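Appendix B. Raw example, untouched.
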Amino acid sequence: SIDLSYDERKILVGSSFLHGANSLLTWDVPQAQKLSDIDTERTATLFARYFPDARQALILTGRPRVLSIRELDTGNVLATFDGGTGEIASVSANEDCRRAVVGWRDGTVKVIDTASMSVVKECMSHDDAVKFAAMAPDGAFAVTATSKELRVHRLPTLPLPDGQQKVVQIE
């Protein structure tokens, strides 16, 4: 997994495919140098997404699959999501990383609020394993897919920073 920070100055790399290492790497783009190498307890990093300030990341590590928020300067785990029904198969987050859609191998789909790591919505489950999950940039909907079907899940609106609600219409 690879993600680029919002200011395009840092790259976050789940490095299970690089040099056989199981770590989370951050790189400075302008300087072309490694900033940190965080040990992920000998498991692969399957998903990594920067928070807007690029100081934290939402990551999915494997065996057993754990969804957590990590502080990138220290590598400390700040929060962990524990609301699953088996092995997580796919994760995606909206643009500001406030929400994530999580799909499990048993077909379960849940949307979580990353600030509290709690379930915002339990979506209609699939009959087969979720293979892919995607989240709209504004968090208004999520898409999940199995080998047989694709579902669009409409989600409750996220409050804007000034407390207003954004109205999104999906046709």
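End of appendix B.
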